[in-house]
Structure formats: C-alpha cells, structure tokens
Fold this protein.
Amino acid sequence: MYQEQAHPLPPGINKLLWELPKAARETLRLADWRWRNQLKNAPAGDGHAVMTLPGFGGGDACMALLRNYLQKIGYQAEPWGLGTNVIRNKVQTLDQVLDFCQQKEGEIVERLERLCDQTGDKVSLIGWSMGGIYANSLAQTHPELVRQIITLGSPVGDPRGTSVWNIMKKLMRGNVPDSLQNVDAWVSRRDQQGERRVRTSIIYSEHDGAVSRESAIIENHELVENIHVPSSHVGFTHNPAVYWVIADRLSQQPDNWRSFCHASLPAFHRKHF
C-alpha cells in the first residue's frame, strides 16, 4: 500500500469551465495581423530539428500550427508521427499509465535516433501536456539525443494536482483508491537517472484549467527554468505569447545559455504577461 500524502489541489472548476472560451480567444489573437507581425520579429532559428509531442488524446494535427511557425522562423519542425496519443485499453492504475508512457517513449527514441543520424545533431523536444512527460523522461534517459526540452502545461509532478486525474477515473470507471495508486513512481520519473543534463524550460500558466502550477513545475534545479505565460491549457499550442517564448528558448545555444527574462520581451508582448 502506498502512503497517502498531502498533494497539490487541482485547478478550480471555474478555470476548467473557462478553458474553451480562453482557447478560442487565444486562437483569434494568433490570427490577428498585429500578433503575426510581432511573431516575425522573434529570434531566428538555426535550422536544428525540433520534434513536437502531443498531449493525451491529441495527434500531430493539434501542434501543426506551432510546427508551421517554427518552420517559418528557421527550424526543421518534425511531428512525432505516432498517431493519436491515447491509451486504447481500459486502465485502472498509474502503473498501467506508466507502462504506456514507457512504450511510447521507446517509439519516440527510434524516431529521435533517425533524426539525429539525418541531421548530425541533437533534437529539441516540445511536449504539450502528456507529451511533456515523455520529453522530460527522454531528456534524462537519452541525453545524447536531446538538445533541450520545452514542456507546455505538463503534469511532471503529482498527477493528483490536475483536473484530468478525477476526470480519467470517472471515464475509465476506475475503482482503485488513491491510497493504492503508485504516485511515487510517477513523480520519481521527473528526476530519474540521477543528475539532469539537458536544459529544461517549463512553460506553465496560473490560468491553466487542467494542470496546477505545483504539478507542472520543477523547483530548485540549475538546468530548469519555470516560465509563466497566461494561457489556457488547450491554448498552449496556439497562444502567440507562448510561441514567442518558445522561439526565444530554442534560439539559446547550449554553450551560451541565458535564462528567460520577461523584461526582454517586446512591449507588445509584455503587456499580455
């Protein structure tokens, strides 16, 4: 039996209910010509490969706009190419979800190895929600393949601090109590394989209706930075402010890395933070 411990609270119901209206507003903002013009001025890419990893239930289409933007500013933007990120069988425990994650990560590694061979360089990973969990794990288990990772509202910490936790239990009709769930194994993957060797930029939002700040961030690590961007959970993949931060982070060179500074944002973007 796993010991019941205090855990972060999931976002309130009001945040969850406002997810779709906020995401719609973020989509309209991305389409606004003023935002498009501002995004053209983001730091240019150096041509290295960047792979996007979708959230649970999503596929390559859900991050297509982001890849299109990255391609335009000078990156080799690659989809994960593994279909829909969903567990086909009914699951009752976190251990079953962990098994699924490990299987997917093995498939991603094969893609990363091919990309590294083709380009002669490491690959940056951008993972949205569950995709960020894969990215965080792969950065530690295969640092020879990963240049840097960027997570977007990913529950790398305690999953009980997410709205998804209770929703998934209801959808799957799970009857295993929280006290018997292997939460420790989930959280320990965040810092597995000892010392972290890959730069990690965590983009989170206090407005996220699915994942709490406490579940999304990693504190007190010199290779990890936590960057707050006002965004809905759904909107992370098409929020223009998020796009700017991603462009800024990808432009950092491994041997000349500078932490993100909100003051460096153009005034047009800064007023939306």
